[in-house]
Design brief:
With 126 residues, this protein is mostly beta strands. The protein contains no helices and 11 strands. The strands form 2 sheets. Strands 2, 4, 5, 6, 9, 10 and 11 form a 7-stranded mixed β-sheet that branches. A 4-stranded antiparallel β-sheet has the order 1-3-8-7, with no helix packed on it.
Length: 126
């Protein structure tokens, strides 16, 4: 099992930047592909970005492509989400997720992920 703890959320003005971190417990972090999802009030949880086990593969939702960057540091058991040019529609609770897998490709499928963090809220003001 792995436990995930997100940090870095908060309030930011439109056009600003934030960097989220997700720290994972355990010694097998490199066996997990990782993802970021978000859930806005009254909406379903949606995929934001994913990264493969050794960071060769990344995948983004169209809505964040070119603005957000996912990365990972396997030595520090941490995955990051750098968010630039934030928009009010990016306002949501952001969740980190992990999927232990033999595959090194990123996944956008919510059902692939077995472990979830508690979420960190982000509010983008206009």
């Amino acid at each position: 099992q792995v436990q995930l703890v997100e940090s870095g959320g908060g309030l930011v003005q439109a056009g600003g930047s934030l960097k989220l971190s997700c720290a994972a417990s355990g010694r097998t972090f490199s066996s997990y592909r990782m993802g970021w999802f978000r859930q806005a009030p009254g909406k379903e949880r949606e995929f934001v970005a994913g990264i493969g086990r050794i960071a060769v593969s990344t995948y983004y939702a169209d809505s964040v492509k070119g603005r957000f960057t996912i990365s990972r540091d396997n030595a520090k058991n941490t995955v990051f989400l750098q968010m630039n040019s934030l928009k009010p529609e990016d306002t949501a609770v952001y969740y980190c997720a992990a999927d232990q897998t033999i595959y090194n490709i990123a996944s956008s499928r919510l059902a692939d992920y077995d472990y979830w963090g508690q979420g960190t809220p982000i509010t983008v003001s206009s």
